[in-house]
Amino acid sequence: MSIGAVISGCKGTSLTSQEVSFFERTNPWGLILFARNIDTPDQVSELTQAFREVVGRSNAPVLIDQEGGRVQRMGQPHWHKFPAAGKFSILYDSDPLKALKYVRLISHLMAQDLYEVGINVDCLPVLDVPQPGSHEIIGDRAYGVTPERVSVIARAAVTGLTEGGVLGIIKHIPGHGRAMSDSHLSLPVVDTTLEELMHGDFLPFAALADVPMAMTAHVVYTAIDDKQPATMSKTVINQVIRHKIGYDGLLMTDDLSMHALSGSFRERAANAITAGCDIVLHCNGDQEEGEAVAQGAGELTGVSLNRAEFALSKCCNPRPFDSDAAKEALKEMMGNEQ
Question: Among residues of the chain, what percentage have pLDDT more than 90?
Answer without folding.
Answer: 91
